[in-house]
Amino acid sequence: MIELEGVPELIDPVMVAAFEGWNDAGDAASTAVAHLDREWKGEVFAALDAEDYYDFQVNRPTVWLDNGVRKITWPTTRLSVVRVGGDKPRDLVLVRGIEPSMRWRSFCNELLGFAHELGVEMVVVLGALLGDTPHTRPVPVSGVTSDPDLARTMDLEETRYEGPTGIVGILQEACTHAGVPAVSLWAAVPHYVSQPPNPKATLALLNRLEDLLGLRIPLGELPEDARAWQVGVDQLAAEDSEVAEYVQTLEEARDTAELPEASGEAIAREFERYLRRRDPGPGQPPGGHATESGDATYLRDTSSGRTRPPRPVRPESDPDRPGPVRPPSGGADGRDDDGGADNDRPGDGAPDDDGPDDSPSSQD
User: b/e for 282-307, b at 16 or more Cβ within 10 A?
Assistant: First the structure.
């Protein structure tokens, strides 16, 4: 049953979703939605029943103390609403949770039920994959859709991916069959530094979302966090000649592939983003800070928190999981065993669903 009591009429709503797990390399996508929820003070209005979609031996509940009283937090997916102010206010419906363990069709149908009841005009799903991309270059972000008309009007790639997929791919296809415009944005995370968080990839996803929706998103400390993350990885890579040589190889390949674009649309997009941030518009301070809606009567979501990203640790300091900086053994195929999205196809680091057929920097 869908309960939407207390939710005001929304203005031009867009649903933005991300799911922890296979589609979320470096936690980049789920952190991006958490950032939107935190900066725009999202109010939770619904949560899916955890019993219906999650295997608690895979995603275990957590116990915590609240003034001496033991409480349990169950793994689930929550929906919140934020109102973005400015000349043309609009609402975002944020969907944040964990990739479900079972009943994916019912899961997507329930989310589409919310979208229908709220009058959602478009669904944007964020994802992150592990790929052969250097940490020293801008994070590639691919925008893909199954709708040919949407691909043409919004300058997106029409997906041609075939292979294993995750909940991002299933949700996008469910939207397409239901007649709801849907887009997936994929950030490529360097496979040799896959340990979360990755604020640089999160920042890239938010910048692309800005371009897609025509919004100005308050970035807070994310740019500073992204610079600190890169400096930390630079220092660790410089201490290992094998890693440094591998990164240089990736840099050369990336620069060669993107050379024709360096003086065209890429520069134009960056200049347009700069102008938007410099001119915030009436009633909105620099950085796109949102105005809060005074008529929202939702429950407050206290499940999200934010910590500054730790400086990457040396591989030998954590024997229980792969170290953050490590070159491939036997080829640069971007494969890993930590649940990233690079398991879809051997050898090319493609996303687990609707990503481009090749790499993020060389789409069909």
Answer: eebeeebbbeebeebebeebeebeee
Q: What is the rounded distance in angstroms from the CA atom of residue 335 to the CA atom of residue 21?
A: 16
Q: Are 208 and 143 in contact (CB under 8 A)?
A: yes
What's 69-135 look like in SS3? EEEEECCCCEEEEEEECCCCCEEEEEEEEECCCCCHHHHHHHHHHHHHHHCCCEEEEEEEEEECCCC
Least confident window among 13-22, 128-137, 323-332, 333-342: 333-342
Of 130, 109, 79, 176, the C-alpha closest to 339 is 130
Stated pTM of the model:
0.71
| C-alpha pair distances (Å), 263 with each of 64, 141, 273 | 53, 18, 16
Return the closest-CA partner of residue 288 out of 276, 275, 306.
276
Predicted local distance difference test score (pLDDT) of residue 344:
41
> pLDDT of 243-300, one tens digit each?
888 888 888 888 887 665 555 555 565 556 556 555 555 444 444 333 333 333 333 3
